[in-house]
Specification:
By secondary structure, the protein is of the alpha+beta class. The chain has helices at 77-92, 123-133, 144-156, 178-188, 205-214, 228-240, 349-353, 357-380, 384-401, 404-410, 432-440, and strands at 11-17, 21-22, 28-38, 60-67, 98-104, 108-112, 119-120, 162-169, 193-199, 219-222, 244-252, 258-266, 270-271, 277-278, 283-291, 294-303, 312-323, 332-345, 414-418, 423-426.
Length: 450
C-alpha cells in the first residue's frame, strides 16, 4: 500500500496576468487567471484562507469501472492486464477510503463489495477485493452510461469529501444511444469526477474524452494493455492527493459587462463557459472539480462598455468558493483568495496594442488544439491538402510555444520539413495508436514561461 503523509491546511491563491490598457472605443478585456492550491502558506501577494481544520484529512470514495465486454478477451492478456491494473489501484487506496469495483458490459454489475455498498479500505478489504477481481471475465456488450449511473448511486451514498471514478473501456459505446450517454453525463456532472482511459485502439476518442470533460477528469490512451497497471496507480495516487472538492471559480462583473468565455487553459484545455451557475447579482460560478496541491490557469474574456480616455474600471472580480461543510443548499464558503481584472482606456498606442505574454501563449495553445483536431478530422475525411495545412500549422504552433510533447506526437503523423514555417508532409502510413494518442492528448498544454 502506498504511504501518504497528512497534508498541511490547503490554501488557495489567485494571480491575474493581463494588459489592462484598451484603445478608445475598446471593449474586450482578456486575462489569464492562475489559481494555486497549496498545503500551507500564502502564495504570491494574495491572502489565502484555510479550508479544513489542520491535521484532518478529507475523506474519499472511489469507484473503479472495468470494461468486461466480449472484446476484452481479444487478446486474452487484455482482461488479465485490466484485473492487474485494478488490483494495483486498490493497493494504492489510502486506509479509510470508501471504494467499489464495477464490471461493465451492456449492464453494470457490482464486483466488490456488492449489496449496493461501498467497502472501507484496509488490509482485509483490499485482499477481498483482489480476490473478487479473479472472477472478472469478458462477455457482453458496452453501455457506459449504466456503469456511470451505478457508480453515481454507490458514491452518493457515502458521506465523504471527495467522490471520484476511474473508467476503463476498450470499445465503442454500442449498446446505448449517444443521447442516453449524454443524459447520464449531465446527471452525473458535479456529483463526482472521473478519469477515463481507452485501452488498445478499438475505442472512440471523442467518447472517452467527452466523459472526462463532462466529469472534470482526465482522458488518455493506454495503447499497450501492459501499461495499464502503472497508469491506474498514477491515477489513484492523484485521486488520493485531492484535498478539496466542488471548488468553483466565481466571476463577478459590473453593470454593462458580460462574460464572453471562461476556459481552463492549463494543464489542459476545457471550456467552462456553458457550465456557469448563477450566483447572485452579476456573478456566476464555473466548476473546477477537485483540487490537490496544484496550479491551473484560466482564460477569462469580458466585454465592457467603452469609456473615455483616462477612465478605468473593474472589469471582473474572480474568487473561489466551495459548498459550506454542513451548510444547506446554496450555502458556500469563500476560500479567501481573489483576483481583479481591470480596464484602462488610453491613447498610448504602444500600451493598448501590446498583448499580454500569458494571453498570447494560451491563445496559441487553444489554436494548436483546434488545428490538431481539425487536421485529423480532415485526414479521416480524405481531404489531405486541408489536413496538411492544419497539421502544418499545429507543428508551427507547437514549435513556437515549446510544447515538445505535442511536437513529438505530431512527428508520428507528419514528416516535418520546417517546423518554424509549418511545412510538413502527411505520412503515408500512420499507426492507429499514434493517431489516437495525438487526438486524445491534443488538449494538453504547456505552461507559459513567466
Amino acid at each position: 500500500m502506498a504511504n501518504f503523509a497528512k497534508p498541511s491546511v490547503p490554501r488557495f491563491s489567485v494571480d491575474v496576468y493581463q494588459n489592462e490598457y484598451l484603445p478608445e472605443g475598446g471593449s474586450e478585456v482578456n486575462a489569464i487567471v492562475t489559481v494555486t492550491a497549496t498545503g500551507g502558506g500564502t502564495i504570491g501577494s494574495t491572502v489565502s484562507a484555510p479550508v479544513y481544520t489542520a491535521g484532518h484529512r478529507p475523506s474519499a470514495a472511489v469507484a473503479v469501472m472495468v470494461d468486461c465486454s466480449g472484446s476484452m478477451d481479444y487478446p486474452p492478456t487484455k482482461m488479465r492486464n485490466a484485473r492487474d491494473a485494478t488490483a494495483a489501484a486498490i493497493d494504492t487506496l489510502r486506509d479509510g477510503t470508501h471504494f467499489a469495483v464495477i464490471g461493465g458490459t451492456h449492464v453494470a454489475k457490482e464486483v466488490y463489495p456488492g449489496g449496493g455498498r461501498l467497502a472501507v479500505a484496509d488490509a482485509t478489504t483490499r485482499e477481498q477485493a483482489k480476490q473478487a477481481l479473479r472472477r472478472l471475465s469478458a462477455g457482453g456488450g458496452t453501455a457506459i452510461g449504466t456503469w456511470l449511473r451505478l457508480a453515481d448511486r454507490l458514491l452518493s451514498a457515502a458521506d465523504v469529501t471527495i467522490r471520484h471514478g476511474i473508467l476503463l473501456t476498450d470499445g465503442r459505446n454500442e449498446h446505448e444511444s449517444p443521447d442516453d450517454l449524454r443524459a447520464t453525463l449531465d446527471a452525473c456532472a458535479g456529483r463526482f469526477t472521473c478519469d477515463a482511459r481507452g485501452v488498445g485502439t478499438d475505442w472512440e476518442v471523442k467518447e472517452v474524452t467527452g466523459i472526462a470533460s463532462a466529469l472534470l477528469g482526465t482522458a488518455d490512451i493506454v495503447a499497450d494493455p501492459a501499461g495499464l497497471a502503472a497508469d491506474f496507480t498514477r491515477m489513484m495516487e492523484t485521486a488520493m492527493g485531492k484535498e478539496v472538492a466542488d471548488v468553483a471559480l466565481r466571476v463577478w462583473t459590473p453593470v454593462g459587462a458580460a462574460i464572453r468565455f471562461v476556459k481552463q487553459v492549463a494543464p489542459s484545455m476545457e471550456d467552462l463557459t456553458a457550465r456557469r451557475a448563477e450566483a447572485g447579482p452579476r456573478a456566476g460560478d464555473y466548476p473546477t472539480g477537485s483540487w490537490g496541491d496544484e496550479s491551473r490557469d484560466y482564460h477569462l474574456c469580458v466585454t465592457v462598455p467603452p469609456a473615455g480616455l483616462g477612465r478605468e474600471m473593474l472589469a471582473a472580480r474572480v474568487s473561489l468558493v466551495m459548498p459550506e461543510p454542513g451548510g444547506g443548499a446554496g450555502s458556500v464558503q469563500n476560500l479567501g483568495a481573489q483576483g481583479l481584472v481591470r480596464a484602462v482606456w488610453t491613447d498610448d498606442m504602444v500600451a493598448s496594442t501590446s498583448i499580454s505574454p500569458q494571453v498570447a501563449h494560451y491563445t496559441g495553445q487553444a489554436e494548436l488544439a483546434q488545428a490538431i483536431q481539425q487536421g485529423l478530422d480532415l485526414r479521416k475525411a480524405g481531404d489531405f491538402d486541408g489536413a496538411t495545412a492544419k497539421l502544418g500549422r499545429a507543428v508551427q504552433l507547437a514549435s513556437a510555444s515549446g510544447n515538445a510533447d505535442t511536437a513529438k506526437l505530431l512527428a508520428k503523423v507528419v514528416d516535418v520539413v520546417d517546423a518554424a514555417t509549418g511545412t510538413v508532409r502527411l505520412k503515408t502510413r500512420v499507426a492507429e495508436a499514434d493517431e489516437m494518442t495525438l487526438e486524445t492528448r491534443s488538449t494538453k498544454t504547456v505552461r507559459v514561461k513567466k
